[in-house]
């Protein structure tokens, strides 16, 4: 079955300062990390729309009709503030839409939600992703930490699959390539933890109302997901394809 997938996030602008003696100048570059995930899902026949991070504040869907264009919404390395603070709210102090509340209601009515890890996912770097105190938190299959939840694994660590037969893993077999970090979370009651990393949930899924939600607590692209994982391993498309297909019911 073809699913319509919205991926929000997975882009950024990097700025560098070059200092040469008494002189300096800055350069900027726009970078996307979505391509491994987009290619994986499109290779399984799904329709993927990417909403870059800089467009999320103005364009993220804010009601059931707008969300209804999709079967699955993926939030990847995009913080709660970017979704909640539309320009009219943040810049003009004009009341707007509680878009995370709308997303939670959409999941409860039958939608599929996947959160992928990163510095601006879950609680995130210095707590800046900030999903713990939002309406969306209760729709996730995991409890978020109140503090910076990143776990860096510079030497790499391999996932331990705990439910290989679950449809959300897409039939992947064998050892997974090493990952370099993840966001630490705690599984809720009645959540199925399908894979762990360093003893913590890596892939977890649950129902929420009439819908479903899932997390992949490491990254879908570098740096936590190095090339052997996200570009060279055929299991990558199976895992993320399986998650999307399970979420789309």
UniProtKB/TrEMBL annotation:
SUPFAM superfamilies: Class I glutamine amidotransferase-like. It comes from the Bacteria. Transmembrane segments: none annotated. Gene3D superfamilies: 3.40.50.880. Residues 4-248 form the Putative glutamine amidotransferase domain. PANTHER family: BLL2462 PROTEIN. This is Cytoplasmic protein. It comes from Actinomadura montaniterrae. The lineage of its organism: Bacteria, Bacillati, Actinomycetota, Actinomycetes, Streptosporangiales.
């Amino acid at each position: 079955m073809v699913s319509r997938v919205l991926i929000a996030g997975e882009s950024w602008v990097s700025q560098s300062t070059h200092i040469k003696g008494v002189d300096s100048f800055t350069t900027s570059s726009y970078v996307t990390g979505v391509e491994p995930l987009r290619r994986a899902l499109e290779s399984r026949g799904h329709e993927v729309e990417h909403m870059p991070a800089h467009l999320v504040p103005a364009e993220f869907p804010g009601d059931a009709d707008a969300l209804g264009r999709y079967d699955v919404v993926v939030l990847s390395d995009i913080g709660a503030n970017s979704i909640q603070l539309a320009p009219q709210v943040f810049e003009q102090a004009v009341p707007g839409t509680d878009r995370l509340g709308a997303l939670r209601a959409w999941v409860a009515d039958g939608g599929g939600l996947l959160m992928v890890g990163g510095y601006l996912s879950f609680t995130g770097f210095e707590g800046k992703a900030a999903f713990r105190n939002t309406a969306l938190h209760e729709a996730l299959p995991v409890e978020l930490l109140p503090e910076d939840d990143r776990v860096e694994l510079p030497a790499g660590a391999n996932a331990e699959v705990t439910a290989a037969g679950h449809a959300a893993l897409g039939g992947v077999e064998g050892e997974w390539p090493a990952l370099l970090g993840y966001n630490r979370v705690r599984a809720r009651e009645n959540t199925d933890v399908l894979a762990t990393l360093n003893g913590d949930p890596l892939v977890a899924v649950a129902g929420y109302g009439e819908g479903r939600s899932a997390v992949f607590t490491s990254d879908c692209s570098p740096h936590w997901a190095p090339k052997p994982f996200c570009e060279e391993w055929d299991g990558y498309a199976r895992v993320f394809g399986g998650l999307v297909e399970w979420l789309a019911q």
